[in-house]
């Protein structure tokens, strides 16, 4: 995979007032490491060296398109928000705080997760754990901290499923039906705002649109990705809330928070959309979790550990430009060097870092791959490498 920054992006608006290209999201210390299953990420985890606001800190804005038009003039009723506050208190024990160590990048991330089973299966965003070499999870219900492994993920949908070690008797979240969500519904995003842990934060608001699409890119614009069918909300979702639940008045989880404008700026159709958040419908996220649990890999679902090639790449015409190679990795053993351009993996043409990520996403540690590249002088090169275990896709 390509280990990449977390999401949350901003569409820069040029002087003519038309939306521009998606602006970069926060780069987790800069390099797009090709790991066995790479990923672009969206939004609102926290990335830190120390703790910088990162996936939480992505430069954040998104161009939202299609779907049910955004509602305007929604008026918050105090009684509704009283109900949602009580619902949030009831839902809180079904949450976890997630802290991930990004070993290759000398950084860390913080986010939120939703407890699906009493034995410790936890749903979260892929970008919360992407690039992690170690994951620590604190259960809100019992206060205990567990080590966690990633059972699998779907980068294209920004979904990951974790397994907590030696967990039992955990309180689970109440999963609702996202098909019942309507524009105007009162909702709340609950999570680990600011990545500080402790009592979950609550961001109450309303659904403003359905079936929204957003595009995310990394800081260098080396890769971009679209999420489809999202729930758009007017709520003050914060960095660190990624992977947390969007609940209704009954405390049922109807979505998983994945992108927010808090502290940054979202653009929609050339307008500032401050205070806008997006959530993955829970039916969609849970269906992916079930596929992962069943070991059902696909073109987008990666099961198990990620594999590492060990090259940092950026865009260039006709391939993926190698910017740096990690000593002792398969890329190093192949003889790849800064300035080389990767053009194919196992016969699959590579015309961008995104294409390289897609090719690597189907691999696992121990797989042997054939890599083709052009050296700094334009000469064709080819070699075989056996991939090793790497950080989470």
TrEMBL record:
GO biological process: proteolysis
A molecular function GO annotation: serine-type endopeptidase activity
InterPro entries, per the entry: Chloro_Bact_Ser_Proteases (IPR051201), PDZ (IPR001478), PDZ_sf (IPR036034), Peptidase_S1_PA (IPR009003), Peptidase_S1C (IPR001940), TRYPSIN_SER (IPR033116)
Entry keyword set: Hydrolase, Membrane, Protease, Transmembrane, Transmembrane helix
Amino acid composition bias (Polar residues), ranges on this chain: 1-19
PROSITE patterns: PDZ, TRYPSIN_SER
Transmembrane regions listed in the UniProt entry: 31-51
Annotated region described as Disordered, given as residue ranges: 1-25
Domain PDZ: 304-352
Keyword Cytoplasm: no
This protein's name: Trypsin-like peptidase domain-containing protein
Organism (species): Nocardia huaxiensis
């Amino acid at each position: 995979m390509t280990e990449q920054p977390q999401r949350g992006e901003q569409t820069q608006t040029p002087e003519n007032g038309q939306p521009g290209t998606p602006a970069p999201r926060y780069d987790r210390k800069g390099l797009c490491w090709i790991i066995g299953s790479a990923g672009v990420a969206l939004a609102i985890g926290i990335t830190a060296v120390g703790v910088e606001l990162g996936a939480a800190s992505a430069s954040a804005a998104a161009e939202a398109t299609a779907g049910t038009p955004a509602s305007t003039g929604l008026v918050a009723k105090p009684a509704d928000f009283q109900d949602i506050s009580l619902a949030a208190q009831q839902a809180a024990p079904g949450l976890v705080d997630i802290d991930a160590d990004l070993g290759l990048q000398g950084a860390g991330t913080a986010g939120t997760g939703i407890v699906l089973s009493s034995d410790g299966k936890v749903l979260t965003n892929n970008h919360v754990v992407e690039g992690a070499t170690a994951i620590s999870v604190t259960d809100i219900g019992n206060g205990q901290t567990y080590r966690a492994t990633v059972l699998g993920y779907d980068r294209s949908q920004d979904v990951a499923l974790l397994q907590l070690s030696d967990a039992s008797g955990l309180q689970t979240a109440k999963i609702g039906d996202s098909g019942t969500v309507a524009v105007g519904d009162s909702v709340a995003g609950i999570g680990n705002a600011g990545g500080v842990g402790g009592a979950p934060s609550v961001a109450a608001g309303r659904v403003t649109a359905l079936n929204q699409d957003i595009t995310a890119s990394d800081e260098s614009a080396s890769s971009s990705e679209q999420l489809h069918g999202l729930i758009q909300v007017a709520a003050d979702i914060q960095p660190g809330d990624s992977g947390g639940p969007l609940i209704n008045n009954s405390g049922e989880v109807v979505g998983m928070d994945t992108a927010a404008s808090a502290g940054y700026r979202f653009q929609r159709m050339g307008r500032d959309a401050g205070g806008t958040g997006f959530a993955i419908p829970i039916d969609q996220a849970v269906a992916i979790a079930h596929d992962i649990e069943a070991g059902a890999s696909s073109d987008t679902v990666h099961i198990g550990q990620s594999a590492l090639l060990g090259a940092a790449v950026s865009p260039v015409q006709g391939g993926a430009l190698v910017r740096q190679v990690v000593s002792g990795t398969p890329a190093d053993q192949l003889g790849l060097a800064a300035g080389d351009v990767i053009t194919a993996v196992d016969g699959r043409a590579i015309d961008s870092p995104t294409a390289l990520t897609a090719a690597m996403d189907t691999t696992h540690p121990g797989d042997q791959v054939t890599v083709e590249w052009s050296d700094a002088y334009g000469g064709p090169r080819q070699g075989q490498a056996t991939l090793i275990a790497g950080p989470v896709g």
